[in-house]
Amino acid sequence: MFINLRSLSLGEWYLSNNLSLYVCFLRHSPLLEKLNLKLKLDCEKDEQMIQTTRGISFAAEHLEKVTIYCTEGDARVPVLVNILRANASSLDRIDVKTY
């Protein structure tokens, strides 16, 4: 567990269409307040990504701000936003920035 972790930035090779990687970090960082996700540029679209979102749950009670960096039209963004909104009750803001 990352008990004292308050801010986390994940990018490039850590992030793929496998949403369980994101969820694993969130589940094991109970005090996380700020999250930056830099989505990999060359990730292929994956239909299984949407199917794997069923049953995803975690408690991100302290998460206040998320920034997602991605290419325009990245299909993972709406899926991630929905997961975050459903599981982070304290989340005030999600910013999406394209590159």
UniProtKB/TrEMBL annotation:
Q: Which domain of life is it from?
A: Eukaryota
Task: Name the InterPro entries for this protein.
Answer: F-box_SCFL_complex_component
Check the record and name the PANTHER family matching this protein: F-BOX DOMAIN-CONTAINING PROTEIN, OS11G0201299 PROTEIN
Protein name per UniProt = FBD domain-containing protein
| Species of origin | Brachypodium distachyon
* Lineage, highest ranks first: Eukaryota, Viridiplantae, Streptophyta, Embryophyta, Tracheophyta
